[in-house]
Amino acid sequence: MRMAAPGDNEHSPIPAIVAGPLAMSIDRLLSAWGGFALDRQKRLVERVAAACAAPAARSSLDGDTLARDALDTLVARWAAALGDGNDRIPAEALRAAFIAIDGARRWPDQFLAAIPAEDFRRELYSALPRPLPAPAPLDMPEQPL
After folding, report:
1. What share of the chain is helix, strand, coil (3-state, %, to 5)?
2. In the structure, what pLDDT confidence band is assigned to residue 110 with cuts at 50, 70 and 90?
3. Could you give the CA distance from residue 29 to residue 52 in angstroms, rounded to a whole number?
4. Whole-angstrom Cα distance, residue 69 to residue 42?
5. Nearest to 27 by CA among 5, 8, 56, 59
6. Among 61, 52, 55, which residue's Cα sits nearest to residue 5?
């Protein structure tokens, strides 16, 4: 089923020549976060496309670059909303945890939410990959010349 491209109507701020490839790029990027229900996926595509509108109107960038930049910006805002102010959670760690808790199915409304629910936040934090401790410094063994 073809999803409506962001520029499918004449009032869209996204040039029609960019809209179709942009929607496909956004859809592909969002699939890396899990299998959202079709209606939720459509709303997410529209939200990311809206974030692309101003750059698309004044740029010659391709749809992939516009979509990636817009989604990266939205994920960074989401990470800030999820964080405690002291720590920035890397996007890769967020994606891993979101997939681990089956967030696309169980918490679809929390993906990119401005104020994530506390239950979701707790579950996501429990699934975040744990960093390894810093390795101890090693002495370089003597090497005969």
Report:
1. 55, 0, 45
2. very high
3. 14
4. 19
5. 5
6. 52
Q: How much is the pLDDT for 55?
A: 63
Stretch 65-82: mean pLDDT: 87
User: What is the arithmetic mean of pLDDT over 23-37?
Assistant: 87
d(CA 15, CA 53): 9
Closest CA to 33 of 132, 108, 90, 114: 108
| Residues 102, 120 contacting (CB under 8 angstroms) | no
Other Cβ atoms within 10 Å of 117 Cβ, number: 12
Residue 132 is inside which H or E element, if any? none
Give yes or no for residue 5 having a pLDDT over 60. Answer: no
Indicate the SS3 state at residue 128: coil
- As a whole number, mean pLDDT of residues 80-89 equals 76
